[in-house]
Structure formats: C-alpha cells, structure tokens
Sequence to fold (582 residues):
Amino acid sequence: MTEQQRIPDGHEIERKFLIKTLPQDLEQNPYSEIEQGYIMVAESGQEIRVRREKIEEEESYYQTIKGIGSTIRQEIEMVLSEEQFQILWPQTEGRRIKKRRYLIPQDGHEIHLDVYKNGLSGHATAEVEFPTVEEMEAFNAPEWFGEDVSTRREYKNQSLALYGLPTEKQQKKIESETQNPGKPTYSLEKGLAILHGLIVDKLAQTDKPIIVCIAGGSGAGKTTKITSMIKKFFAGQITPYEMDRRYRGATWMQEQAENGEEKNWDEPDALDFDGIVTDLQGLKDGRTIDVPIYDMALSEQNGWEKLSSKRIILVDGIFAGDPRISELADIKCFISVPLSVRMLRRLGRDRKRTELSLNEILDYFAEKVQPMHEKYIQPTMESSDLIIENEFNPAIEAERIGEDRSGLHPVQTKFETNISTRFLETIGAVPLGTTHQIDNYFDPDDRNMILTGEMMRIRREGHTWIFTYKGPEKKKEKEDRNYFSERPTLEFEITPATEKKFLNLFGNQRATIKKTRKLYELKGVVFALDNVRRVENGRTIYLGQFIEIRSNGNTPEEKIKEVLDLLGLDIRLGRKESYFEM
Fold:
C-alpha cells in the first residue's frame, strides 16, 4: 500500500466549483458573514488579504497570505486584533467582497458554500479542502455542483474583488495585467500592509531571527513612518538596529582630512561596515551583542550597550540597501521620496538636532547629500523586494518644517489699486523706504507645487538672498480670517554660493517676479505699495500696482481693517494669491 501524498504544513489542497442550484434546507446549516479585502494581489497570483468574519454576534479578524497555485497553495493565516484590522482594512478599498459562507457536511468532508452579495449577487461557489492529493482526486461532487473552476483565475476571490463577475473583457484585463509585471511600488499605507504580510510569511518559514532592511534617502521617513509602524505591529518581537550607531565620528573625519581625504557624512565610508556586518550576523545567529552608542550632539561614539536578538532584526539606515548588508537580509524595503521632499524634511530635522544654520543645512544638502544619494543610495532601490512611496502631506508637514521659526504664519492680503503716493501722504502714511526685489519661483520636476498649494522661491533684494518655502493656506477657524491668506512659512537668508548649489538641483525656474516696493506705516500697520512685473519665457508682463498688507499675527485684524478703510479698500475684495499665482 503506497503512502498517501500529504502536503507540507502551511499548505492547502482545495477544489472550487460553480453551483447549479442551491441545496435544499440550506438555512439549516451553520453559516458566517464574511467581508474580505485584498491588500495586494501579485501578477503571480500571490495575495495578502484581511477578513472580518461574524458568527452570530461574535466577530473575528484574520490576515492571510496565499502563495502561487490553483488546487495546492501555501497559506499562512494569523489572527488580528480589531485595532490591527481597522488599520489594514482601508488599504483594501476597491478590492473587497462580501459573502455568506455555509458549512455543509458531505461524505466526511466539509463544503464551504459561498453565496456572494452586493455587486456579486447571484453568484455562488463551493470549496472543499482535502488532507491529501489522493482524496482530492477521488472526491465525488454532489449533483448540485456545477463546473470545476479550481484552475480558472477569473473565479478566484481575488479576481472577483478586483474585476467583478467573469466576462470576456475582464478575462483579457486579467491576462494583460499578469503578463506585464513591473517593479512592486506601493503607497505608504498599502506598502506597510504588504511589508507586514511579507514579514509574517518569513516568520512562518523559519524559527530563526530574520533581518528586515529599511533603506532610502535622508529624509525619506524610514524611522518616523516605517519602522515605527512595524514596531507597533510586532510589539515585543523587534530588535531595532540603527546603522547610525556605527558612524565613525568627527575625530575620524578630521583624521581623514589631515591625510588629504575629504569625507562627508553621507557616503558609505563614514560608517564602519565591517562592524555592522558583524553585529547583524551575531543577531541573526541569536546572540546578544555589544554595540556602540552614537551621540549625535557630539558626532562621536559614546559608550556601549547590550542588544539582544529577537525574532525580527529591523535594520534602519540610508545604506541599508548596500550589498554588504542586503546579503544578510531576508526582506529588503526601499522608501522612495521626491528630492524636494527630502530637502524640506532635512531642513526641518537638522535645524533641531544640529547647531548648523539653515543656510548651512541647505548648502550641505545641495553639495553633498543629493550627489551621494544619486551615487550610492538610489541604485540600491532596484535590488529591493518592494518600494514604498512615502508621500509628502504639505498640509501637515509644512507646519513641522516651519515651526519655531519667526514668521511661521504670516497673514496677508493684497489689493490692485491706482492709489498715488500723494494720497498716502494726505492720510498720514509715513514712507519707510523703497526696495527692488527679484523673486525666482521654482517648480520641482518631482511634483507640482501649484496643485498642492505650496511655493518655493529665492528672493534677491540688494545684496541679500532669501530662501522661502510656504505650505498650503491654512483653514480658518473664524469667518473673518477668510479674507487673509495664512500659510506656514520657512524663510531664511542664504549666501550666493548656496544659491548656486541650489540652482544645480532646481534650476528650472517657473517664473520671475520683479517689483519695486515702497513701504509705509499707518496707524501702526506696515503695508507695501508694489509695482509688479512678471518675466516668463523671455517676455515681461506688467501685472499692475498693488497694496499688500501682511502681519506675523501680532497686529489685530481690527487694526488692519481700520487702515484699509482709510485707504478706501474693501476687505472683501482682497486677493490672497501670490504675485506668482496671478
């Protein structure tokens, strides 16, 4: 007697059938209400899904990873808490099914009869699982079963969730998408869910520690967005390993300079890779290791600490995709972020944790950080298992970038007018001086700041250069404030050398605004009388004469309205857009 062919642990054998007619006395069988959605469906047929199942009044939640195959597939299922389910469920939007599942006994087997709802109403299938291949092949289907569709992808739940009930047109769409695979790139929320699924999959395949590498450029959000969520999902199972702890330090940098080698903090040589590899190998072997403590304020290693090995070694660093590290990795994830976003995040971050001026931070980013990114970091993206695009939310992040800076929320409004300087003198306006300004506005190739409501410019005024970034207009709590534009702002003086380096990154100017600005003071309110011209594509366009009133929030709006009345201006006719946007 030959031994029956059994499947390995973590696999399932099942057949799926269409239904001719529903069996009699169906409602006498136990059933559950199921909602399931798909976080990821790969071209190969692999899937990651989440499910909510309700039996009477009790709800259960699951995440399932299924491998390639039709009748025999690897399946890994884990129980979720309601909180975990609620985090993952939004990532299945547009890829969901709802059904009632009846459990029907049949000749020693259990039939899962699924009656679909909503957009799949009228569709029903039956699934039967088997412990061995021989039992699957010997199964005699009851008369109410229809066609065996086990090998037809269009009848899989993943296809029903993505494309609906099978049609010839939908079948062609499935074939087209599965024959044209691309590099897996996902949004932040969906990418996190898929990364979570990949980790669960790897943990199920081994009882040894696994290494998960999170790579990406400076300011990509590796620590704040990715590793923090992974730690939350796998609480108590994480050994965090920050590659920054192996920076060689300022003393080493100085020694290299004295030997004629100029090094910078954003190239691989700045880290002790031999030490990193040794650390990770020890952790992967399950050992507790001694690791250095790196002091960012001192730019030096400052002592040692013990680091114990747990199930997941989570490696975080700009060079986490370096081949020397990725050879040890079980999962490699790259966080992709546009250049302009990384620059703004770096400005916001380093002004808090370093003693550098904002000009020095911008200068260093343009001269060192971005060239090193292009040379050493960006190429490692191609060897990653998945790419997560960590989108920039300007409505939120502009606040963080600009916080604690003078002029965070300048309130302003402007009016087109033909008011003369003589009239201003008659109402008591005091002239404060005249200046000429040239504003160059920049349009990054990686995103459209006009659509997002942002603005980035460099202003030249005499022998002074000023960099300005403004976020989207803030929503007003009071109706009166709708007459004024209020935007988070980061503004600081830069040197001509920094401007030149900045132009190497963002030299594609969208437009130039030239204006002659006369400043006045009236009733304690300072305002400008601007004559404005726009230069674009070699053409100069006269925009007109405007009065602009702005405040950093210290001037009461009632006082501003009083001055506007003296100027004969109606606050309701004020314009909130910048000259660039006109």
